[in-house]
Amino acid sequence: MSSPRIISGTAKGLRLKSVPGNSTRPITDRVKEALFNILGNDIQNATFLDLFGGTGSVGIEALSRGAASACFIEKNRSAFQILKYNLSYCNVEQKAQAIMGDAFSFLQKKQATGFDYIFIAPPQYMGLWEKALHLVDKNISILSNDGWVIVQIHPVENKTIDLVHLELFDTRSYGSTLLIFYQRCLGDLPYG
């Protein structure tokens, strides 16, 4: 796979440094472009959490397209160094917060405000996406009232997840990649 690139916005055309090995789950340009076509102009001034940051490709794309801020969580030291490099290379580090740490610990902390988008794309076939989704559901204040949780997995990993505060509202398939979209349950919203 070639190194990921930024598709649109202020960093358009820049190729990111890749993380060697299989410690990250890279997104293809085709899937990333489809994702941001779905998000459309709603990404403008949004807050974005790239939960398993890797190269930072998705969060940097969000910043390049006008997101107000992006927070990246990455546990792997070498991936974190590449993430920091890519943020600087794309000149978006002033709107980014990069945290070297455990995604699950981060999800359990109280946040000042909820994120508009939470992107979950952990290493494959380990059930990590389910654990992350359950933690978002448990600590729902991490998601803004009209926010979305977006999960990127391989189709064979897909299963129905019992959630209290989140509901699945869309699924998109792109070959060996599945994007699953969740939002807060209607009854969970203030004045809902």
UniProtKB/TrEMBL annotation:
CDD domains: AdoMet_MTases. One of its GO terms (biological process) is rRNA methylation. It comes from Anaerolinea thermophila. The lineage of its organism: Bacteria, Bacillati, Chloroflexota, Anaerolineae, Anaerolineales. It comes from the Bacteria. Gene3D superfamilies: Vaccinia Virus protein VP39 (3.40.50.150). One of its GO terms (molecular function) is methyltransferase activity. The keyword Nucleotidyltransferase does not apply. Keywords: Methyltransferase, Transferase. This is Methyltransferase.
